[in-house]
Design goal:
By secondary structure, the protein is an alpha+beta fold. It contains 14 helices and 23 strands.
Length: 424
Amino acid sequence: MRILVVGSGGREHALCWKLAASPLCDALFCAPGNAGIAEDATCVAVAATDLDGIVALAQKERIGFVVVGPEDPLCLGLVDRLEAAGIPAFGPSKAAAELEGSKGFMKDLTTKAGIPTAAYGRFTDLDAAHAHVRARGAPIVVKADGLAAGKGVVVATTVDEALAAIDEIMGKRRYGAAGAEIVVEEFLEGEEASVFALCDGKTALPLGIAQDHKRAFDGDKGPNTGGMGAYSPAPLVDEALAQRIMTEIIRPTLMAMGAAGRPFKGVLYAGLMIGPKGPRLLEFNVRFGDPETQVLLPRLRSDLLPALVAARDGELDQVDLRWHADPAITVVMAAKGYPEAPEKGSEIRNLDVAETSEQGVVIFHAATRREGDRLLANGGRVLNVTAMGRDLVEARARAYRAIDRIDWPGGFYRKDIAARALRA
């Protein structure tokens, strides 16, 4: 098969790395890709949100299967466009992608279906939102309804903080049109986990469990980010709880989407709070997680490509996935100033040494570019240093030893990824 991966981040590098290893892959392209992805695929400078450009590229290169990585092109309807052009594609339709594209839609659908989630209100009026917060009190959660690159969520510990978040998101439109409507939610106690399932419209196949770290700095301090690191499996979710999540959350959502005339095909990513009342849904994403993909795919023993094709074709009931028992961890190295104002253009050295000096280490590029022989940072989250080991202690030690060998004064990273799991 001739395959095209759409996207340019660490998730897409992990997808390209895994798909390139498939015996079914004859040629691999990525649009637009990055400097690391270029080592596994032919990168073509077409933006992920340029739907016309992606369709034209797929036609020109005689692509037999497209894997769409990021949420933006999914919510814009890229899969619909590709399928209409006769090009098989993995990912949800525009209508199904609204599970991530609108938090209000997701809350309405899951609440109607009886799926356990936080109590909420939807607002397009500032005064009404303010009144709701004053009536409910704090802590309380304020979310932009639309896509905000993982940053449109404020967990407010005081009423004043929540009111300020409403003004920032909806009043000042900090995240643009994504904040035209907001969702205000009950604060849930517990510990977060990410659960993934491959879906074909009617069947959901477990795709692993991970925990990520959203805050920028050690000790869960600082602003929310797209994710500063992750590990898999998550000791928090045992087999019995994993089965409960599939039964109470994943499969009912798949049924509800079908009943709503929006059959869901692709990756369903449930962000969950595991607390005293059991698993409760925080949000859905409609694609592979980032940075969770960087720890899930190294643990996958099976060929990923046939599973993705089966999801698109409605044949997941014929698929069985096998996994390595060894855990994996990834540590995000970000450019200084991230997430507010990351500094681009700083040089990164010694990646080859870092990757080859430790067994079980692979470095996925999230935002890099080449300038001659120099490797430069080209975004906020720049590298994902991933390692496997016999246990989480060994995997973690390998990842941080690899980081110690990377020469990048312009970057920073958290030093406590997976520390909570090791204390448990």
